[in-house]
Design a protein that fits this description.
The protein has ten helices and no strands. It is mainly α and about 200 residues long. The protein has two domains: about 60 residues, Arc Repressor Mutant, subunit A, CATH 1.10.10; about 120 residues, Orthogonal Bundle (Tetracycline Repressor, domain 2). Helix 1 crosses helix 2 and helix 5 packs antiparallel against helix 7.
């Protein structure tokens, strides 16, 4: 795809904002400073983003790889599909930038509550929807009970992942992958078990 001048300007602003947010903090970074560093006029920046928070949201989407399309997982194996979604991590090539800006984002979100709420929803909604599709297919295929409580199931699957993300002091790339264990525990608790030979005989 040919990169247009508009696309190039868009990326320059994103990268300039990312650098400045990490160095100066979000409140300490002005749109004027972003315009100077990116070489893109402030008028052009406001053509792309309504305000600094809209730009910040896109910067965080970019650095966490949330702008990359995620394929729908359907291998036919319920446990494997759940594990695949739960084991997804942000792109390694943005580790340094993400580590630099996350403390700033957390501090900003604590003060700017509406932005923090919108950001948390933006982060958690894609995996929630992916897991929901897998669970719904599991119910349709008879792998899960028809009366499965969807909200509780999603909380059971995502809860351990959020706990590790929030409370673990390990470097994100060195953390053990909890996804397969969480998926296995969920499937052991809720997935339909194959009938034994005795049960099959009783059905004849």
């Amino acid at each position: 795809m040919v990169r247009t001048r508009s696309n190039e300007a868009h990326e320059k602003v994103i990268r300039a904002a990312l650098e400045l947010f990490g160095e100066r903090g979000i409140d300490g970074t002005s749109m004027d400073a972003i315009a100077r560093l990116s070489g893109v006029s402030k008028a052009t920046i406001y053509n792309h983003w309504a305000d600094k928070e809209a730009l910040l949201m896109e910067v965080m989407v970019f650095v966490n790889g949330l702008d990359r399309e995620r394929e729908d997982v359907d291998t036919g194996d319920l446990c494997r599909d759940l594990s695949t979604v739960l084991s997804r991590r942000p792109p390694n090539d943005m580790d340094a930038e993400r580590n630099r800006i996350m403390p700033t984002l957390i501090a900003y979100s604590a003060v700017h509550v509406e932005f923090g709420r919108a950001w948390r929803k933006r982060v958690t909604e894609p995996p929630r929807q992916a897991l929901r599709r897998i669970l719904e297919r599991g119910i349709e295929r008879g792998c899960l009970p028809t009366d499965l409580d969807m909200d509780t199931s999603l909380a059971l699957l995502l809860g351990p992942m959020l706990y590790v993300h929030i409370f673990s002091k390990d470097d994100p790339q060195n953390r053990p992958d909890l996804g397969p264990k969480v998926a296995e525990a969920f499937c052991r608790a809720f997935a339909a078990k194959p009938a034994t030979d005795e049960q099959k005989a009783n059905l004849r």
